[in-house]
Amino acid sequence: MNKIALIFLILFASIYKIEAQELNATVSVNSSHIQTTNKNVFTTMERALNQFINGTQWSNTTFSSNERIDCTVSLTIMEQPSDNNFKAELFIQARRPVYNSSYQTSILNYRDANVEFEYMENAPLEIVQTMITNNLVAVIAFYCNLVLALDFDSFASLGGSVFYRQAQTIATQAQSNSGWKGWSAFDDNRSRTSIINAFLDESTKAYRELGYTYHRKGLDEMAANPDRARTTILNALPVLKDIRSVRNSEIILQMFADCKLDEIVSLSEKATPEEKKNTYDLLRNVFPASSMQLEPLKK
């Protein structure tokens, strides 16, 4: 084999490896709150996060480059108690393309304000033989699996189950380390353990099924038949009321509100007056704090 052919094969293998990864994340680390002379640690932290999120193969499914899940991961450093210890907020947003359109719909739009971790400058972030020894790795791996779970649920009914279980395994492992914050299942209904328990609770199964109906049977059909697609989505929403009383459901309902209320208001513009009224009454009952956001449905 000549040298040019060998180089071509190496490049092809490299491209294929990159395309096989599932996530296409824009990653940033914001250190504006921190007054320190050494900003290099944040540069290497951002580089390590980018490599970890975009370079890890999170499943056995092969993704082509145009199938990768677009997401934004922003880590804002709030405090630096010591050289290698940090307190931060994590914002993560993931988007899913809608069939036959240029529109992307949000499937996750979440801020985690309880991220504490150790990081040494130039240290890589990785999972070694399924063992997690760093809280930052645990947090990021948890949310990467949650993004995949939500995405797969939107394309097949309950299709993301394997990723929810992987996120649960991470949460269980993280809880065993008493020094890692944000994982308690008992005193924080917004903890990562509470989130995953809510998604895996049998009594919220209908909520996950709503994800498939909303996206695959609803939004993906908008180009072909917008009236039918809109009706499909609006008729599926009563599930939200049904699970409101379920233990642990508060956090996933809030996640739904953060992702979908504006979108529902927008797609309801051409709904009938009766559909608008029914949708407003339903959503106001489920999300009383969002009444102003839902106000356009009354017009």
How does this structure look, described?
By secondary structure, the protein is of the alpha+beta class. The protein folds into two domains: 13-200, no CATH class; 205-299, no CATH class. It has helices spanning 3-20, 40-55, 135-155, 161-175, 192-200, 205-218, 226-236, 238-243, 249-267, 273-286, 291-294; strands at residues 23-30, 69-82, 85-97, 104-118. It has a four-stranded mixed beta sheet with strand order 1-2-3-4. Helix 2 (40-55) links the parallel strand 1 and strand 2 (69-82). The radius of gyration is 21 Å and the shape is globular. The protein starts with a helix and ends in a 5-residue tail after the last helix. The model is unreliable at 1-20 (pLDDT under 50).
In short:
This protein has eleven helices and four strands, in the order αβαβββααααααααα.
How would you describe this structure in keywords?
11 helices, globular, 299 residues, disordered N terminus
Order of helices and strands: HEHEEEHHHHHHHHH
What is the 3D form? Answer: globular
Number of helices: 11
Low-pLDDT residue spans: 1-20
Measured as a percent range, the helix fraction is: 40-55%
Sheet with most strands:
4 strands, mixed
**Range of strand content:** 15-25%
**Strand order, biggest sheet?**
1-2-3-4
Measured distance between first and last alpha carbons = 71 Å
Radius of gyration: 21 Å
Counting DSSP E segments of at least 2 residues, the number of strands comes to: 4
What structural class results from the helix and strand content? Answer: alpha+beta
Mean pLDDT: 90
Number of domain modules: 2
